[in-house]
Amino acid sequence: MTIAVNPHILVWAREIAGFGLDEAAAKLTLSTSAKSTAADKLAALESGEKAPTRNQLNDMAKVYRRPLLTFYMAEPPRKAARGHDFRQSPDARTRRENAMLDTLLRDVQVRQELVRELLEDEDEAASLPFVGSIAMRQGVKHAVGALSAILNFNPLALRKGPSETLFKRLREAAEDAGIFVLVLGDLGSHHYSIPASVFRGFTIADPVAPFVIINSKDARAARVFTLVHELVHILLGQGGVSGTVSMGAPKTEDARIERFCNDVAGEFLLPNGAYRRGVAPFEANDLEGARFAVEQIATRWSVSEPMVAYRLNREGDLSAGAYETLRSEFYTRWQANLKREREREGGGPNQRIVKQFSLGNALVSLVHRTVRSNTLSHTKAASVLGAKPHAVEPMLRHFENNHGTFVSGAS
């Protein structure tokens, strides 16, 4: 028995799963005959020339890792509006990577709209005055001052602990100011992980319910820079997707905005005239001296070593060649550490802790409050939290038992 479905759904599901036609046909165990190859048979299904059977749809759901109901939709999920695409080379990503990013963006946009509706229903929908409150022409120093006031944070103050501690502190301050900060990097499964090379962060600069998303697949030490960078986008009132740092001269308005956000984040986290105090001087091409200085500064200021190297290069204290060498070294080391972590997987924090860390205190607290007051159903709560309805109540009880205290290094 064949099922009438939109063939475009079949193409979309295969592409977002990352399979070419031949590979997908093999995984679906379509047979090759004298008249047509397995790939030809799949192409016929995807073109609408033939309709799939119920068993074939079940196989596609398993192989492509999509819910069976997906294949009965009238149209493929619409492409999410990315806002500004601040990435310097968005077309360098594969079609699958950008498709996964669009799916994540669409999911977050739905959550953000639900959160805004919740705030409006609870009469808490006041516009936040800092969203869109600054302009690039006012300069880096002005932006740093504005952000410092919003977060009640003195960039010159003594810091203690690793970068994860600073991230937790700034995240809590941002949430206290009314910004929802989530740490997400997949579509609900490690099979659909979105690497940091695709995006580092993105923002929805809504004046009532602004959202900042940090890629959980990026190095933990890098998150604090990304957070501050994305908060600057909120202050500029320009939501969009950000990528890895580019050292090339900005040639477009979006590139100039991205460079500005990087410079503000650099000045906020490593104040000029302060962060190099007590550090032995070194020549711009002195790799050994630079390595020692970078490590010392990163430890003292609770930031990542790549961020320190970037700042030194932007200030002209580290040559482009030395910076690229160090950046390559840091990346190689991070990849090695990541590999070791994966090999040790199995003894980390439970998934409920990881989930709540990913969502943030502000979002879970809002859902908890509105569910308990019968304003929000468990079904809608599941949509906001990105969870199954049956998982909502255990998550809320865990939140109650822990008073909203999350493990900062959970993910």
From TrEMBL:
Chain ranges of the IrrE N-terminal-like domain: 201-313
Pfam families: Peptidase_M78 (PF06114)
InterPro entries assigned to the protein according to its UniProt record, in alphabetical order: IrrE_HExxH (IPR010359), Rad_response_metalloprotease (IPR052345)
Name this protein carries in UniProt: IrrE N-terminal-like domain-containing protein
Organism of provenance: marine sediment metagenome
Taxonomic path: unclassified sequences, metagenomes, ecological metagenomes
